[in-house]
Amino acid sequence: MTETQGRQWFRKLMEPYITGKLLKFQPIESPSTGLGIPDWWFKTVDTEGWIEEKTVRPVNENGVKIDWRPGQFRWMRDYVRLHGLGFLFVFTDHGMYHSLTVFMNDSIRESYSMEEFTGLYCFSVTDIRDVEASVLYDVLKVGHQ
What we know:
The protein is 29% helix and 29% strand. By secondary structure, the chain is an alpha+beta fold.
């Protein structure tokens, strides 16, 4: 799943919340933005924050290394340290489907052991086709409570 496909999936899934003015969602696509700025900015009635999206190949016994571009991890780490709300959406490409694991704030890392990858998430589904918009919206809405 490319970043563009991820944005399209997220926008379509969250359309009822966007239309109902419960969620403002802005992809950041400009090459002139600062080094490390995450892929998406969002705002709900209660929270706002940033989302970085990454796609990884199927996880093996050694864990997962996130392919951060220069400055991205540091930007997110510094933002979270200032009490910002940050999410890392990790799409795992299994060929016929993608799973989604969402990490938040202090659980965002440069890489994960298998134990961390399966134990640190705040939201996870085996197949993104099973994601319920209301559940994902609640994860964003109450993120740092």
